[in-house]
Every structure is written in structure tokens, then in C-alpha cells.
Amino acid sequence: MKTKILFILFFSLLTTCGYSKINDGVEPIDVSLTLFIVNKDKQTNNYPKSPNLSVSILDHTLFFSNVEEDFTLTIYDGNGFLVYNTAISSVTTQIDLPNSLSGEYELRLDADDFYYVGDVEI
Prior knowledge:
Elements: H1 2-17, E1 29-31, E2 34-37, E3 54-58, E4 61-65, E5 71-76, E6 82-88, E7 94-96, E8 104-110, E9 114-121
Antiparallel strand pairs: 1-3, 2-9, 3-4, 4-7, 5-6, 5-8, 8-9
């Protein structure tokens, strides 16, 4: 009987450990992004493959959708200092930010000849 109870408790613990932040009833907040085109060498084909790129945030997790190319994610504080930098691939759906980040930041997603900018509160 004890073994059966321990098994049920262990199984219950396993099924709740992977419980996603997205499923606890709190919805992520959308980050409003502005697209900027950089005209390198007067290229005409410098538009993103991800025109409908979507980013949202919940606590210290960024969620991505409609990402069709690789980006560099950079986060700047209110004084313009770089506080975080990482690569985002086309298959990335979420990134956990350091817990040390708190406050208002500028989020920037850079590709070769364009970038997205948005303000985010963590």
C-alpha cells in the first residue's frame, strides 16, 4: 500500500514539474516592435522573411512566433548600455532572461540589413 501511495505521489510530482508558465492562467504581454530597414550598399532586397515577427514576455521569459530567420537579441538599459546579448535561431520559441534584469529596457532583434526595436518591462 505504501508503495502504491509513493508511486502516485511521485507520478503527480512528475506531471506538475514540467508545467509551463504559459498554462498557469497568466497570459504573456505582447511587445510592440518597430521594423527598421538598413540600406547596406543600396541593396533593394533587404526586407525581412519574418514581417509578422511576434514577441511577448511573461516574467523573465520571452516568447517568439513567426520567426523565419536568425537574429541577434540585444537588450539595453535606460542609459543605452548593453545588458544582455544572445543569438535567436529560426526555431527558437522562447528564451529565459537573467533574473538580475528588472525594470524598463529596449529590446532589439538584429538581422543582416534590418532590425526590430521594442520597449519591454521586466
